[in-house]
Amino acid sequence: MHFAVFFFAFALTGTTLALDNGLMRTPPMGWLAWERYRCDIDCENDPKNCISENLFMDMADRLAEDGWKELGYVYVNIDDCWSSKQRDDQGRLQPDPKRFPGGIQKLARYLHDRGLKLGIYGDMGKLTCGGYPGTPLDKIELDAQTFADWEVDMFKYDGCYSNATEQEQGYPLMSKALNATGRPIGYSCSWPAYQGGLPPKVNYTQLGEICNLWRNYGDIQDSWDSVLNIVDWFFENQDVLTPAAGPGRWNDPDMLIIGDFGLSMEQSRSQMALWAIMAAPLFMSNDLRTISSGAQSILRNKMAISINQDALGIQGRRIVKEKSGIEVFWRPLSKNASALLFFSRRTDMPYRYTTSLSKLNYTAGSYKVFNVFTDEATSLKDSTEFVVSVNPTGVVMWYVSAPAKFNLRQFYQGGTLHGRVYDDREENAIPRVFL
Amino acid sequence: MHFAVFFFAFALTGTTLALDNGLMRTPPMGWLAWERYRCDIDCENDPKNCISENLFMDMADRLAEDGWKELGYVYVNIDDCWSSKQRDDQGRLQPDPKRFPGGIQKLARYLHDRGLKLGIYGDMGKLTCGGYPGTPLDKIELDAQTFADWEVDMFKYDGCYSNATEQEQGYPLMSKALNATGRPIGYSCSWPAYQGGLPPKVNYTQLGEICNLWRNYGDIQDSWDSVLNIVDWFFENQDVLTPAAGPGRWNDPDMLIIGDFGLSMEQSRSQMALWAIMAAPLFMSNDLRTISSGAQSILRNKMAISINQDALGIQGRRIVKEKSGIEVFWRPLSKNASALLFFSRRTDMPYRYTTSLSKLNYTAGSYKVFNVFTDEATSLKDSTEFVVSVNPTGVVMWYVSAPAKFNLRQFYQGGTLHGRVYDDREENAIPRVFL
């Protein structure tokens, strides 16, 4: 049923109906305060980590000076707990005067001067999740204009203390209001996360028309369990979620916690790789002032980033789930290429997984294979059996290039792979001869 | 009830009734194959990692040449899957001839030549857990003698495929048999792990008399969840377990998985610190040929090792469990010192925990405090409120020295701290004036 509904919806809307602000044709990248800094407002005792303009300027400096910006990490996003507890005498939101003495516009200019963009946060309830003034229906136009006046570049609209009816009105209304300001402002909607993330409560066609990205599911925490929980949900529901994604409209499984406290290096590579397969926004939430070189090298991996940022914008899928705990994910990419990801859920020792490209539904031919995390390159015939050794909780990620004879039609009709909406964008990835 | 039973038992046995082989007066340290290498016998396809004499010689080389030995890591322990599937024509166990062509005695001498010791593995059932020949009751004397003939230094006796009655006979019998060989062989008993780890099924007084160490609980896996699960069980049952431990007789929460795939650096420090508090055997199960410098520095931390190896051999306890997810552990040490461990179960951000030494039951005075993982030293009055910032899933570990005016009697009678058996060994840690 869902499949039929979505196929129909998709056929009607085609591929062009993303939010018409021209933004985020590839998943947005940058830095977001929440997971790492939460609602720490104790600037007296914890001046380096509290939510203040200093924190965002520090991160902006690191993004601009340490080469992150050139890799694509350009957004610096404020989350909850930035504002004063009172609106100003004209009813406008205002930042906490002690923690943001320069104001938001000055902060935005600080970022713009460095080639970066500023994101800000609001909530549809009377209060934000953290208890700061919300942006209920009657404040939407005012607050959208305030953000535009401040030269903000992105807005995350959370949903604490709002109900389904308000959300149904408010999320489209904010989209309109942001567009009406004339300033291009990327729009992140928490709406689906508050409605369970699935149809019929969630209408992904509509979301694609009004939001650039949306949080489908609960908040990430600094633990491998949390990453796995998110990954499970997104791939168990891939038949619903993958058709929703595309240039300008992205599912958001939440922040990258690489560089924080809870993930091993293997697990950090796994998050980076899985987020690349999912065409997920890449918002780091970490301390760029002290991040380890190991975590940096994962977040800076150019091939993983280029897979994430592929121009086709097709969200990848899980195509194999073995009893051994090995899973295989696949994402079609532009230039007849694709990404293949081997992931181990085991907790014992490296597992030697044997398969072949033809078993993974690649058509006959000889392929070039680049290992994303080791930079090794090889050639591989579709019929050649190969062994990949996958570490516990780790991944092996491949970029697979020409001849890329993907027989997508067969692929979508195959045994374990049915249920995927056939998307004509993908035809660009396939040599005409196969269509 | 348990408390009374144990107090009585302890009073009867006193502190001297450890297995009378003079071994392991401090927790044994070394390397053990199982967690990292399991039953990998595929030497054809995985020659560097399969269970073979080469693996153990490789690890011996690393222990001897890379400075591990000088830190105390001297055991190199074989686990399951080392033997031939058949006993020899005289009924003796024999190693797999392809994987151990030189035989066990030659391997033992290779280790002894490098100042190291060799451990080996057997099982009380007809078969080991991995399906190799076991050492049932009627083979105990023969196999003990075989191990002694091979100049083995430690023996782990597993319990797969044996029942409670056999275990009740077999574990003491093996103890006798090992002693009867005249060769000092450290004896690790898996008995309590097969009987749920708790009285009345498990008699820790008897275990202390026949074994040098024993596995109380299930196998560790390469994940933080597994470490937490073990830590939970050991500290929830600390009233039963701590009196059982002492010089020559140790609770064994299983191997260190630091340097493998599943733990972050924070979590690795936490395992090292918690194992030190528990006076646990320190058997690494990792690849010493490729281990990262970060993991090495944790495993080589001299102050953590010296806390683990403290001559009093008193197992530490959890003394505080906050709703915030902060827990505090304490272990009395020789020279009037103690170890304090602050641990965070949070998965958000560093938590600033406020307390004082007097709140942690230290008596009046000024203490010297050494931070185990940062090498910082400070002085601290018992009454001074201090803040420790504890990272998610991480620890702050202190070595606290003189004046060490621990009022242990008050400590054990205190609100949250009752239920600990008062141990007269501990009086050595306390200035006489306080007793």
TrEMBL record, chains A, B:
<dbReference type="GO" id="GO:0004557">
    <property type="term" value="F:alpha-galactosidase activity"/>
</dbReference>
<dbReference type="Pfam" id="PF16499">
    <property type="entry name" value="Melibiase_2"/>
</dbReference>
<dbReference type="InterPro" id="IPR002241">
    <property type="entry name" value="Glyco_hydro_27"/>
</dbReference>
<keyword id="KW-0325">Glycoprotein</keyword>
<keyword id="KW-0326">Glycosidase</keyword>
<comment type="similarity">
    <text>Belongs to the glycosyl hydrolase 27 family.</text>
</comment>
<feature type="signal peptide">
    <location>
        <begin position="1"/>
        <end position="18"/>
    </location>
</feature>
<comment type="subunit">
    <text>Homodimer.</text>
</comment>
<keyword id="KW-0458">Lysosome</keyword>
<protein>
    <recommendedName>
        <fullName>Alpha-galactosidase</fullName>
        <ecNumber>3.2.1.-</ecNumber>
    </recommendedName>
</protein>
<keyword id="KW-0732">Signal</keyword>
<dbReference type="GO" id="GO:0016139">
    <property type="term" value="P:glycoside catabolic process"/>
</dbReference>
<dbReference type="InterPro" id="IPR035373">
    <property type="entry name" value="Melibiase/NAGA_C"/>
</dbReference>
<dbReference type="GO" id="GO:0016020">
    <property type="term" value="C:membrane"/>
</dbReference>
<feature type="domain" description="Alpha galactosidase A C-terminal">
    <location>
        <begin position="313"/>
        <end position="394"/>
    </location>
</feature>
<dbReference type="InterPro" id="IPR000111">
    <property type="entry name" value="Glyco_hydro_27/36_CS"/>
</dbReference>
<dbReference type="GO" id="GO:0005764">
    <property type="term" value="C:lysosome"/>
</dbReference>
<dbReference type="InterPro" id="IPR013785">
    <property type="entry name" value="Aldolase_TIM"/>
</dbReference>
<dbReference type="InterPro" id="IPR013780">
    <property type="entry name" value="Glyco_hydro_b"/>
</dbReference>
<dbReference type="Pfam" id="PF17450">
    <property type="entry name" value="Melibiase_2_C"/>
</dbReference>
<dbReference type="InterPro" id="IPR017853">
    <property type="entry name" value="GH"/>
</dbReference>
<keyword id="KW-0443">Lipid metabolism</keyword>
<dbReference type="GO" id="GO:0009311">
    <property type="term" value="P:oligosaccharide metabolic process"/>
</dbReference>
<keyword id="KW-0378">Hydrolase</keyword>
<dbReference type="GO" id="GO:0019377">
    <property type="term" value="P:glycolipid catabolic process"/>
</dbReference>
<keyword id="KW-1015">Disulfide bond</keyword>
